[in-house]
Write a structure and sequence with these properties.
With 533 residues, this protein is an alpha/beta fold. Helix content is 39%, strand content 19%. It contains 19 helices and 22 strands. The strands form 6 sheets. A 7-stranded mixed β-sheet has the order 14-15-16-13-12-17-18, with helices on both faces. A 6-stranded mixed β-sheet has the order 9-8-7-10-11-20, sandwiched between helices. Strand 7, helix 9 and strand 8 form a beta-alpha-beta unit. Helix 4 packs parallel to helix 11 and helix 8 packs parallel to helix 9. It is globular. The N terminus is likely disordered. The protein binds 1,4-dihydronicotinamide adenine dinucleotide and magnesium ion. 1,4-dihydronicotinamide adenine dinucleotide binds next to helix 11 and helix 12.
Amino acid sequence: MKTITSREKSSPRTDKRSRRATVHHNGNGNGHPTPSASRGASREVTAWLARPKRNLIDGRWVAARSGKEFDVLNPADASLLTRVPDSTGEDIAQAVQAARRAFEGGPWRRLTPSERGKLLWRVGELLLKHADEFAELESLDNGKPRAVARVADVPLAADLFQYMAGWATKIEGNTIPISVPYAPGARFHAFTLREPVGVVGQIIPWNFPLLMAAWKLGPALATGNCVVLKPAEQTPLSALRLGELLLEAGLPAGVVNIVTGFGETAGAPLVADPGVDKIAFTGSTEVGRLIVRAAAGNLKKVSLELGGKSPNILFQDAGDLEAAIKGAANAIFFNHGQCCCAGSRLMVEQGIFDDVVEGVAREAKKIKLGPGLSDDTQMGPLVSEDQLKRVTNYLHQGKAEGACYVTGGGRAGDRGYFVQPTVVKDVRPEMSIVREEIFGPVVVAEPFSKEEDLINRANATEYGLAAGIWTRDLAKAHRIAAGIRAGTVWINCYNVFDAALPFGGYKQSGWGREMGHEVLEHYTETKAVVLGL
Ligand code: NAI
Ligand code: MG
């Protein structure tokens, strides 16, 4: 094992990498770390963490070609959980070739749709069978409370696979009566086939590591594609464990390849690879733009699920105001605000503004911060030191620009990456905390009085992912919902997700939709076949 070499020191990598990862050679496996036992971790998970971590390529577990690995840290205390392959273009190329071989021939293409569906169903069953283990792993890796991962992330991921299992037998074309005006009297039989796009590169973020893997893999496999999945460098563990379950469920070699690594060194080569037919990405709008440019080489298809700055609109006639206040707190504080659809702009009707802001601040103060594995923890740390810095920078900027912090406003403690749940008021539209995605437990509250201005103000963002509306006036709710330019509108609720509901963004929040049957469009090509009779 050795630490950073001079080549790595001088390579133009982001500061993220150098701060987060010490690069090690795994050599012959000697010197694999004994992870500092994470307090509260089960024996099963501790043993799994201690086993060497490899990429899944062509049905086999292999080290990075370079032999290098990087550290995976527990965000609750920055302790070492394990190390994973620090993959580069060579590893990606190998994975893409394996996916291509699996796509062009082999058992995957010979499976019937029904067999494909049953396989996906089994993946869901296996996830549920190992739900406790996945919840624990997700909590250790990402920081979220284990109890939340157990009731949300893991069952939602299982359900996504099982929902998509049903679609495998329902990918249908049409028969189309055609007229062909320049061929009078000629007769044709015309129909469409829906075929898989081919080899798909999938790049996912760290906020819901397992669930994002499910959102990506489920539809790709239901429609018969082959995949190279790159999990986020901060949270690669549940994807690797999921890879084991995919093999256990009977997925043929090469159909899903899982390669761990950093965005610049593993993600970018995947996007640039001419052997990839489509990229599906979830992450920052900034990287989304890079991906669109990098995909131009072979004009691969691209779908993107990007950032948000979602308005959550609370009217005086919300009815049960306490429930609405709790809803508004949940809209921002769920997953520590690390949600692309977080209700981060709380817009409150003037007459109840003070009460609501006080109420949300009260909820914020009640939240018990702690490591994800502690049973009484309600909010864990942010995922990484980078995110801690990013979020606290925004908090500093907001203060410098004169915003008023009703509660919170900084880091919590000095160990791990905890941030205080924060409620901000007295903001102006041009402030960075009002315009930009913070991706932390920080809500900015602004009053409104007229419905007409409200829609313009709610839409005054480059994003368009989600919105919330709290009112008992149904006509008003529908007027506002129709006026909002966003992919999801929740009325008298927030953060309601389902495998059957399409999710995605207007404007700079993305291209295309995840989940529902809409996502299947992004994983199929339509072939028109015309037969002269
Ligand atoms: P990011 O967009 O850099 O990372 C997301 C994924 O993209 C990771 O797997 C990463 O390795 C990969 N990636 C990074 N650069 C790449 C490149 N040049 N080519 C290909 N893949 C690349 O997001 P990051 O830096 O972790 O977080 C920064 C901000 O992005 C957050 O504060 C948040 O505002 C936003 N974000 C939004 C998410 C969402 O769900 N829409 C998820 C994660 C982050
Ligand atoms: Mg980044």
